[in-house]
Design the sequence.
């Protein structure tokens, strides 16, 4: 892999359509299929450009980012998921929360759908936890805890 192999094909795209159009033809086809897999897994997702790359949001929260690089497509962030999902995604993990899909291998569109579905569930759980009232611990309980 050369020095510039990790640089994303970034443009000053104003939309995902612009971003896709700025990529090589073979990558355009892959990005269109990835976009379709994301839309299928999260039909209510909105599209935007963030950090100069395509991003999908659901109910105001970022769901997934997609970036085209010279040798792979990156998806961020990847959910932790259960043991079965972790095993399935392990071949593509490039960090704690990122996935690299090599362009010279078949793209796992079903896995992308699972990733997006899990991210949507994580976002909902995070939102639900944020909205639920926190239990107050009385001073008496705190003093017993510390004893």
Sequence:
């Amino acid at each position: 892999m050369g020095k510039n192999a990790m640089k994303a094909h970034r443009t000053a795209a104003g939309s995902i359509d612009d971003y896709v159009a700025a990529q090589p033809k073979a990558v355009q086809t892959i990005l269109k299929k990835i976009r379709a897999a994301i839309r299928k897994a999260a039909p209510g997702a909105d599209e935007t450009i963030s950090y100069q790359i395509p991003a999908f949001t659901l109910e105001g929260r970022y769901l997934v980012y997609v970036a085209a690089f010279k040798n792979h497509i990156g998806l961020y962030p990847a959910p932790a998921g259960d043991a079965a999902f972790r095993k399935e995604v392990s071949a593509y993990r490039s960090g704690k929360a990122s996935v690299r899909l090599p362009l010279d291998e078949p793209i796992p569109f079903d896995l992308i759908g699972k990733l997006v579905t899990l991210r949507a569930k994580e976002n909902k759980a995070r939102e639900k936890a944020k909205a639920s009232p926190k239990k107050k611990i009385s001073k008496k309980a705190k003093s017993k805890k510390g004893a």
